[in-house]
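#dry-run=false #mode=assembly
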Amino acid sequence: AQKITQTQPGMFVQEKEAVTLDCTYDTSDQSYGLFWYKQPSSGEMIFLIYQGSYDEQNATEGRYSLNFQKARKSANLVISASQLGDSAMYFCAMREGRRDYKLSFGAGTTVTVRA
Amino acid sequence: DVKVTQSSRYLVKRTGEKVFLECVQDMDHENMFWYRQDPGLGLRLIYFSYDVKMKEKGDIPEGYSVSREKKERFSLILESASTNQTSMYLCASSPAGVNNYGYTFGSGTRLTVV
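#status=ok
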C-alpha cells in the first residue's frame, strides 16, 4: 500500500496567490515525521519544512506552512504569495518510527506559477 | 559548497553494460541512500547503508547492487543495464539519529540505457 499519496499531478497558480498541495499518509506508528521537498527543473531536492507527529503546532517556514491534521492523516503544504520561482515539483515524504531513517516519498505535484 | 556529489549529471549506456554511479558526501554522515525517480512514481528506495560495509535492500533492489567501502562514498552498481533502468538516480545522506530535515541530496544522475 502507498504510504504517501499526492493526488494532484499538476497545478497552476497565479503569481501572488496561495496554493495548497495535498498529501495524505498511512502509518501505524505513533512517532513519525513528515517532510516537504521542492525539486526545480535543475533537479536538486530542496528541503522546505518538517512536521513531527507529536508537534502540536503546525510548522511554518517563511512562505511555507504545513496544515497538519493528524486524525485525517493529512499534511498539506500551503505556499503563500506564490512567486515565479516557486514553479517546481513538490514531494511529500514520511519517516516512520524513531529509529528508521528511511523516507517514503509521494509521486509529487508539479506547480506552475503564472505571471 | 557542494555537500553530496554525484559523479555524473547525464550518462548514456548500452544494454548489458555494467554501470557504476558514484556518490560522495563530505558531511561525515553515517547514512547514505540511493533512490530512483520516475514520473508518476515519485522516489523509490533502491538500497541504503547505515555504516561502512553495511547495506540494506530498499523497495526495488532487483538488478542493482551497492558498495560502501569508505564512509563518504556510496556506489550504485547496475550489473547488466537494461532499458527499464533508464531513470533519474538520486543519492542522499543523513546523520545518525533522527533529524528534522531528512536528507541532503545530490543533484542527480539522469541515466539513459539504449
